[in-house]
Write a structure and sequence with these properties.
single chain, about 90 residues, mainly beta, globular
Length: about 90
């Protein structure tokens, strides 16, 4: 189980999360994982693309990104996938 979690999400410190660092692009997945710094990451990855991403830190949404919507400043939807959870966002989408 831990190996699969590391394939989906890795943290190099309390600020930067690496999303899908070892996940094959051919595999679809939808997950919700806890990360360091009281962070929860929800992601949907389909057909080789991130379709949805929500990162919540201490109960506040810091990253909310869905394919086809305006880009969030903390995530651009392009590989390598990194999430900067050190910066707050005014985005309140859930």
């Amino acid at each position: 189980m831990i190996a699969l979690q590391y394939m989906l999400l890795q943290a190099d410190d309390q600020k930067i999360l690496h999303l899908l660092p070892a996940w094959p692009t051919e595999w679809d997945v939808e997950f919700k994982l806890h990360a360091p710094g009281q962070t929860i990451v929800e992601c949907e990855f389909r057909n080789g693309k991130v379709r949805k991403l929500i990162a919540t830190v201490n109960g506040h949404v810091t990253t909310a990104w869905r394919e086809g919507e305006e880009q969030d400043k903390t995530f651009d939807g392009a590989p390598p996938y990194r999430i900067d959870v050190s910066k707050g966002s005014d985005d309140k989408r859930k």
